[in-house]
Amino acid sequence: MHLRKLWLLAGVVLAALAVVTTGSASQQSAQAGGTVIFGADQEPGILNGDIIGGNLFWGTEVISPVFPTTYRVYPDFSFRPELATTTVQNNPFRLTYHIKRNAVWYEAGGPTRPITAADYVTGLSVIMNKNFKILSQTGYEDIKSSRIINKKTVRFTFSKPFAGWKTLFGAQAVMPSFAVSGEDFNKVWINDMNNPKDGKPISGGPFYLPNGGWDRGKQLTLLRNPKYWGPKAKLAKAVYRFLPDTNTTAEAIRGREVDVIYPQPQLFLVPLRHTAGIKVQVGRGPIFEHIDFNMGFGKGPFNPLLKNLKVRQAIAYGIDRRAIVSALYTKTDIAPGLPVLNDPIILTGNKNYKGHWKGYTHNAKKAIALMKSAGCTGGPATPGAGGVWTCNGTKASFKFKWKSGNQLRELSFEAMQAQLKDVGIQLVADDTPNALSQDLPNGNYDIILFAWVGSPDISGWDDIYGCRSGSDHAQDNNQGYCDKTVDRDLVNANHQLVPARQYALTNAALAQMVKQVPTVPLFQKPTYLIYRTSMKGLLENPTSEGPVWNINKWTKA
Amino acid sequence: MTEVSRPPEPGSPDAPLVDLDGTLYASGSQVRTMPGAPTDLAPELTDSALAHESGLELKARSQWAYARSRFFRHRLAMGSLVVLIAVLLCGAFAGHIASYSYDAIDLNNINAGPTTTAHHYFGTDQLGRDYFSRVLYGIRTSARVAFFVSILSTILGTLVGSFAGYFGGWLDNLLMRFTDLILTLPPLAVLLVAAARLGNGTINLGLFHLGQEYRVALILALLFWTGIARVVRGLFLSLREKEYVEAAKASGSGDVRIIFRHMLPNSMGPIIVNMTLVTAGAILTESALSFLGFGIKPPTAALGNLIAQGETQMQTQWWLVVFPGLTIVIIVMCINFIGDGLRDALDPTQRRIRA
Amino acid sequence: MVTYIIRRLLYSIPVLFVSSFLIFTFVATTTDPLEAAKMQPNVNKAAIALVQKENHLDKPIIERYGYWVQDAFTHDFGKTILGSRPILPDMLNRLKVTLQLIIAAEVLTLLLAIAVGVYSAVRQYSIFDYSMTTLSFLGLAIPVFWLGLILQIIFVNIFNKWGVRIFYTSGLDNVDPGTGLHFLIQRIQHLVLPVFTLATISIAGYSRFMRASMLEVINADYIRTARAKGLIERRVVLKHAFRNALIPLMTLAAIDFGTLFGGTVITETVYGLPGMGRYFIDALSGGETYVIMAWLMVTSVMVVFFNLVADVVLGFLDPRIRLD
Predict the structure, then answer these.
(1) ω into B299 cis (within 30 of 0)
(2) A248 vs C185: CB contact, 8 Å cut-off?
(3) pLDDT of residue A498
């Protein structure tokens, strides 16, 4: 081994790299123009959004430009028809879909075929098939009968009114019947979005996934659908790069390795807002953080004090939600002006938002008074005993659960822990990796911090806040909370088709709920759409649609 | 060459053993006990040391005194020791030095840079907690972890290694296969699984109520003992052939007595040096664990979780990463230098005396 | 020698079985691939039950382990729980990426560490020796994820300031990687930072190791004899001392190489590389029990195998050792 040779080798490598830098710079500009590159922090496992395992966020962002949807949710939370218009009838509840005349399926290298009534019926039969691992049948299970009126018109009759009908027949629920019928749906659209019968890529949207377009672990490439029936995409290509670490995606957009990222809002992203060549749109997302109290659900062990309304109220008053939101988002400049959320279900930004929880502002005196009137002794006045209340022999110390590894929740917890310490209530960190999959459904928590995903469609919440009974009612109520009025109002809201009345029923339920405080809403998680200014036409959609909802309008300078 | 790894150690009984600065240690059947082997490894070879070398027989106590004097002459190691003690004292008396509690939240004063006003020497973090205080308390937590890991893994490793090496045969086989088993487990998986199994929070052993730092320490110790076990086994394999051990056996001393009174004291050098390695490794691994979300949980401050939490903000709030990061680098470097000095002072292969 | 190898292999079989069972018990009880689905309100419970039944998730652990062993031997580690993808082909793809990374890192490490180690030993207590010692102690004290992040920031800033793309900071390839020389060059530009990040600690450790090993040999009797015989110092160092000093380092490198298959998690996460480490993290977050198991088995076998390789190589190179 000669050192001199080694140096020579190093010199050659460096020289080669120097040549390269200029070479690849020109290559970079040559490939620009028609391609948008996403930095996706998560890779979908499969591309079938209907079955279990197919509902990851970036999976829906890949599926959405390829499959047509009956209704699209716009940034103002309104549903607007895309594939079909609908006629609604009552008694019995009937939906008639009138499919767009020009709507067609495109098969790469093959013919186009019209999207027909049969595609709706096929979608329904697949979704209701017991042999397939369909994630959710909500709404579809109420359909009693279907009738094809003509090639472009189909009518469904329901056993009972379904208020969330606009969510039905979205992407991949209208299925190309010529491709899907007779297939084992569990094996369709796993690694591709092809016609399983001939292996050709299929699309009813502005893009399609060519064969070999998904290089697992690295990237997924969509190409423009040349025969799209709607306004054709202006970009020729959309590439999803899978970069698991948010730090890396942030550096990648600064270094022009990607064009668009959609990360969780975090402090280190703030400087990007002031970086030349990068734009950030902040939205008020549909995901809302809240704490739930265990009021006696499951085998425990849980602290029985939470069954006491006064203790729950004391906690609600002891927490300074405004200070938490301000510390996490306003003062950090992550999302200045993000308000405290004062209602679950109906979120801020919705014109029907009332804010029933707004009475629960930070009030340490009130919290202490409430604990006293609950018959508790000790408390902050007696620091000798640790300054924690004891009520009928039970210490006011609660296991606070969240899913490990979430820094936002960690910080929220730490703030609440410090605030409640001042009013004599102790929170003990109890985060576990299985907090949501095991501890929550088994009732193994005192207080739990997590999020639900809200929706412009406000039906279905009886599943969470209704009275749990039997094996099919309110199965996601893991709190042991039950109020007959709330249950009744939320169930009725599911079948109320007039939006104003549906909101009135839901608000009535919330007004009743706030009296018992089974839950305390905290805030809506802001969304961050970050893109290079060379991209035009992007508009943040804070609903669950995500950034690609209008991808066919995007251009790249 | 791993990211989350045990301290350097041999992969097999016959492979050479390394410490962090690359000294070769005993391995399998060929322990280096070359009497009279010349060495340049000890820079401060003094007159008194040379004088010693001409001596024929030394008592254990004078060996230690000799080692001590050599260590004290190792300037880098002594300097490191002073710095390390100073840092550790800061941690131990964090409650007296720090102006704030480690979890005192001040939402009106978040993300402030380092300043002398209000004693925020290291700035404040996302919840307005004084970072100087958090780093001081972090030193305390990390030192506890490191100390506990080194003690526990050394005891465990020494026991396993000495019994395997002394008794040999099926016991050696069994213990070494068990060591192999631990070694084949990827450390990351073990850490992860153990973190999930033991859960968060404290360990409750009836009378003893240990904080979560001991949980993390326990997990690390269960990974780190294998290196020491192999070193000790290797040493014992060769020591048991020595005349004085034979003599002790002949005079009817019990096995346990021979192990602890005769053989162990002669193996202390490598064991102590290995302890320093484990200590340094424990501090670094704690930080990697925190990066993966399985380390010490906030609001408790540990140097590793401070870096991991501040890591995402380092472009804007550099102080969140730099101060705990520097502290780790200083501590780990000091420990390594001390280990270096100790090796020079204690390594039996460098003592030119008849063992 | 042959009997030694066979005996070692036979020993490792029960070790792997016991460890696989222990790991299986832990992994299977702590991961749940259906976690996300179960959290979905109004989820179709029948479908969940279908997936559970299909993958034996509803069976006791012992029985599940039995099914897993069967799958591992007869069906290439079986399929993923969500999406029923065969596991082995995916893992082999990831293995290729990791192999590139670790071979490059190992080569870089050995080249630098040997050069630095030998030179430090020959010029012991020189300025070079002291500065390398300091540098390596520093290298040993820096957390890997931190180093990766700093490198990313540095190179992105260089790019933004001067418009020169020296290295990429994410992924394995460009969106359009091109072919031939262009492909090769852009691949190198993507791999340099991860390789350096992965290699830093080992360069520091190995160079110290090499230095000590070299010093020991230089001071050994036979080298003194060689010197005394009047051989040129350079020839003594390179021909006699260097070769003998290299043996322990090579053994160490072989052992480390085995552990690297499962030891690149942080580097691959930081740089977004689709290798084994990422595969593990993805499987973990998706709760894919059988992928995690397959991964652990493959990495464990690598550790065992390269340990054996190290022993055998050492046995060949070092006449003082006999394997029996």
Answers:
(1) yes
(2) no
(3) 85
